[in-house]
Specification:
Chain lengths: 211, 211
Amino acid sequence: MGRKEKDQQQIEDVRLRILEAAKKLFLKEGYEATSIRKIAAEIKLSPTTIYLYYKDKSDIAYTLHKEGFKVLGEQFMVLQHVESGFERLKAMGRIYINFAIQNTDFYQLMFIMKEPMEFISDKDCCEWEEGEFAFGALQQTVLDCKAEGYFNGLNENNVALNIWALVHGLCSLKLQGHLDHVASAHLHVPEDRNILEEAFETLVLMLDKMK
Amino acid sequence: MGRKEKDQQQIEDVRLRILEAAKKLFLKEGYEATSIRKIAAEIKLSPTTIYLYYKDKSDIAYTLHKEGFKVLGEQFMVLQHVESGFERLKAMGRIYINFAIQNTDFYQLMFIMKEPMEFISDKDCCEWEEGEFAFGALQQTVLDCKAEGYFNGLNENNVALNIWALVHGLCSLKLQGHLDHVASAHLHVPEDRNILEEAFETLVLMLDKMK
DNA sequence: AAATATAATTAACACCGTTAATTAAAAAAA
DNA sequence: TTTTTTTAATTAACGGTGTTAATTATATTT
């Protein structure tokens, strides 16, 4: 019965080819513009065949969303070698921001769009979530910062949540165009100066004040 | 030639009826599910007639987006009577969060979706932006906080930006379902306890540390 | 009353996600 | 090996979408 395993492998192969095609189109033209029909055409399949491998479009979105979390998690790996909690926190923020800027489409899928999250809540079982690893790392780092004298008297989970929200907020406003809009309208910021980085530098100073 | 003015009035009337129908449907079923055809049916017009009054769908989104900023701006009005800068900052955050939670669809249109902002950047002229009033109020409040001894040595514009990003980040993560997901997965938070409010309370404590 | 300008309509294009019915291919049973 | 059964992939179709071009109805002006 070695046949069945090989079939399973072939099925997994098609699943992957669909996903690769979806990713390619998605990174090139964005999620909305990537239709099931285009994905199918890309790998010379009939559109309806896609539905034999994925429940619907948001299922594909969710699978890509998971992949994004895996990539972010890998980039977080280097943080394990940073001893100081506060230094790790800063590095974490920088990695997160870089990831968001360099993988804008993945970031949209992971944190801004609602489709993948809706797919999650539609699922009966709450399986292992890759995003949880990243947040767990942040939690631990905030805890280490507390040991170094930061965030005294503050609930560490809420601090972690706030820091995530802040960095996500910066990225999200940047990706949606609000940051540049406000910068050119309210702040007379030179075009060449990166407003996101400047804000992050101030954030570091702010956190430093919480020792 | 008082005729022409009356015509102008009638044109403005239809424009408004379209917008009201769009808003009603949008608040009930969300932006994506609100089609031009449904808007037209709502006020017994042909779908194509809409295009005589609005350039395209994102034009309608942008007009609604502007209205959202007007409502938020009105809710900010009460802040003028708060003398203390820091108290005003706290109240501002609470108003912003309440607005986001109670007008989730408007909030999506104003800060999360990309269509309205794309419409802005497609426009040749950069006319008065209602959102600027709200951010201006925040800028002034941060300045007042500085006068009260907060945020010493920090660039006030960047501080304002970071605070906005933080509160927006919380709201955005909440609306997208990430906040509740993390809360139930990582933080063992009782269902009845409002995680957003709890995070905000910690934020206030954090800001208080920056005196 | 006829000619012109404008407002609204119908018809049409090129898509979309998704489901049901059908055909082609492979595996199992005879 | 041939027939039956299972499974994989396809075509056809439904009911939508935003948007444009061509056309008709309605006022306004000559």
